Automatic annotation (TrEMBL):
Gene3D superfamilies: MetI-like. Keywords: Cell membrane, Membrane, Transmembrane, Transmembrane helix, Transport. It comes from Aurantimonas aggregata. It comes from the Bacteria. This is ABC transporter permease subunit. Pfam families: BPD_transp_1, BPD_transp_1_N. Coiled coil: none annotated.
Length: 313
C-alpha cells in the first residue's frame, strides 16, 4: 500500500511540474506585450522597456522560468499587474462562486446519473433503458450556454423564481448568494450527468452477470441488496474515476457558464487576465486549477484503497 501511495504521489508531482512548464511556455509565446498593453497605446518605447525591466520580462527565459519555479515552491504566485494584489489573494476573492458552483453541479450530476444509470443497467433493453440512453446522448450534445439561456428565459424571466445573473452584493447573505447559483449549477449538472450516467450503466452491466451475483440471487437474497450492495459496490471504481474527472473538468470548464450568468468566479478572472496579458494571474490560475485537478484524481486513487482491498496489494 505504501508503494501504491508513493507511486501516485510521485506521479502527481511530475504532472504538476510538467503543467507548470507548459503554462509558462504558452503564456510567453502568446502574441502581445503585457507591458505595452498595461501602459496603453500612448506609451513610449522607453516606458515599455522600463516596465519590462521592473517585471523581469527582459531577462532570459530560463532565468524567468527559474524565478517562476522558485516562487511556486515558496507559495508565491506573484502579483497581478492590473489588480495590484497578490495572485493568491485575487484567486481567493473569486474562489467562492466557483467552488459552490462546482460542488452543486457535481451533486446534481451524480444525483441524476447514478440512480438512472443503475436502473438503466438493471432494466437493460427496456423502454426506460432506451429513453435514458437517448436523453444522456442529448444532454451530452447540448451546449451549456444554450441550456443556460433557456433556463434563464423560463425560470428567471418568465417565472421570476431565480435571479437572471450576478452573485449579489457585498452585503448579501450566503443563502441569497447560493440562490444565484441554482440555475448555473443545474446547467452544468445536467450537461455533466450524461458522462457519469453512461459510465454507471456500462460498469453495472459488466458486473450484473458475474457469478457472485448469480450466487447471491440463488441464495434467495432480495434484489435491492444484490444490486446495491454487491453489484454497485464492485462497479464503483470506474464510476468514481469518471466522477472525479467530471469534478475536475467542472472547475476548469465553468468559464462559459460563469460568463452567461455574470458570476464573479475564477473563470471570469482568467478571461479578464488573458485579455489584458496579465501573466501572473494567467499562470497562477492555470496552475491552481491544474493542481486541483491532480489532487482530485489523487484523492480518487486513495479512495480505491478503501473500496477495493485488492488495490492495497
Amino acid at each position: 500500500m505504501a508503494s501504491y501511495v508513493l507511486k501516485r504521489f510521485t506521479g502527481m508531482v511530475v504532472v504538476l511540474f510538467v503543467v507548470a512548464t507548459i503554462v509558462f511556455v504558452i503564456v510567453r509565446i502568446a502574441p502581445g506585450d503585457p507591458a505595452a498593453v498595461m501602459l496603453g497605446p500612448d506609451a513610449t518605447p522607453a516606458d515599455i522597456s522600463a516596465l519590462r525591466d521592473r517585471l523581469g520580462l527582459n531577462q532570459p527565459l530560463l532565468v524567468q522560468f527559474g524565478v517562476y519555479l522558485g516562487q511556486i515552491l515558496t507559495g508565491n504566485l506573484g502579483d497581478s499587474i492590473f489588480l495590484n494584489m497578490p495572485v493568491l489573494t485575487a484567486l481567493g476573492q473569486r474562489a467562492e462562486p466557483t467552488f459552490f458552483l462546482t460542488l452543486f453541479s457535481i451533486l446534481i450530476a451524480t444525483g441524476i446519473a447514478l440512480p438512472i444509470g443503475i436502473l438503466s443497467a438493471y432494466y437493460r433493453g427496456s423502454l426506460f433503458d432506451q429513453a435514458s440512453t437517448t436523453l444522456a446522448m442529448f444532454a451530452a450534445s447540448v451546449p451549456s450556454f444554450w441550456l443556460a439561456l433557456i433556463l434563464i428565459q423560463v425560470f428567471a424571466v418568465r417565472l421570476g423564481w431565480f435571479p437572471v445573473a450576478g452573485y449579489g452584493g457585498p452585503d448579501t447573505t450566503l443563502l441569497e448568494r447560493l440562490h444565484h447559483l441554482i440555475l448555473p449549477a443545474i446547467t452544468l449538472g445536467v450537461v455533466s450527468s450524461a458522462l457519469i450516467l453512461r459510465f454507471t450503466r456500462a460498469s453495472m452491466l459488466d458486473v450484473l452477470d458475474d457469478d457472485y451475483i448469480r450466487t447471491a440471487r440463488s441464495k434467495g437474497m432480495a434484489e435491492t441488496p444484490v444490486v446495491l450492495k454487491h453489484a454497485f459496490k464492485n462497479a464503483l471504481i470506474p464510476i468514481l474515476t469518471v466522477i472525479g474527472i467530471t469534478a475536475a473538468l467542472l472547475i476548469s470548464g465553468a468559464i462559459v457558464t460563469e460568463t452567461v450568468f455574470g458570476l464573479p468566479g475564477v473563470g471570469n478572472l482568467v478571461v479578464s487576465a488573458v485579455m489584458r496579458r496579465d501573466y501572473p494571474v494567467i499562470q497562477g490560475a492555470l496552475l491552481v486549477v491544474a493542481a486541483l485537478y491532480v489532487l482530485i484524481n489523487f484523492a480518487i486513487d486513495m479512495l480505491y484503497l478503501v473500496i477495493d482491498p485488492r488495490v492495497r496489494f
